[in-house]
Amino acid sequence: MFNRLAVLLLSTLLAVPAFCAQKVANNRPQSTLDTGDQAAIREILDLERQARDASLHRDADFSQRTLAEDYVAITPLGQVTTKRDTVSARKSGQLRYDELNVTDMVVRVYGDTAVVTARADVKGHQLGEDFSGPYRYTRVWVRRTGKWQAVSYQATVTQ
Fold first, then answer.
1. I need a labelling partner for 121 at 20 to 30 A (CA). Which of 15, 65, 100, 137 fits?
2. Cα distances (Å, whole numbers) of residue 17 to 11, 103, 142
3. What's the pLDDT tens digit per position in 23-81?
């Protein structure tokens, strides 16, 4: 049962947000970033905020819109999930987030690619099972035809 919970939890953590403690692009402090990098960081931070809201409100449409067709997520148990899995988990209504607190967020921009790393403290249940706890995650966004799409996500349980 825990394996199934972890798959759904972490495939839907795509919806975990960003309220950033630190913003970085190409390992440069924000004050030295060019205007394009600063704009990209703002866009990614907004997408991460929307992702958090979508998790709390079980909004499958957000995942449908923002996940690339070739999206792949790796759960803390090493399971692979796809866009279809993530959207399905949201639509099922069996997953409930009560709280999502994201800290230690860093956004790095490399042209049309952005890498987000963060910590997510989660309180929630799926099918009556508690999956609350601390996680660290990495999400990769790629700008395709002017739109940011999540292409990869990996989460790890932390202590």
1. 65
2. 14, 9, 17
3. 444 445 544 467 779 999 999 999 999 999 999 999 999 999 999 999 999 987 788 99
**CA 103 vs CA 20, 110, 120, 137, 158: distances in Å:** 6, 22, 6, 11, 13
What domains appear along the chain, each with residue ranges and CATH number?
Answer: 2-157 (3.10.450.50)
Cα–Cα distance for residue pair 94/88, rounded to 1 Å = 10
pLDDT tens digits, one per residue of 8-24:
444 444 444 333 334 44
38, two tokens: 């600063």
CA distance 123 to 107: 24
pTM over 0.85: no
CA distances from 4 to 41, 46, 93, 132, 156 (A): 33, 30, 15, 15, 15
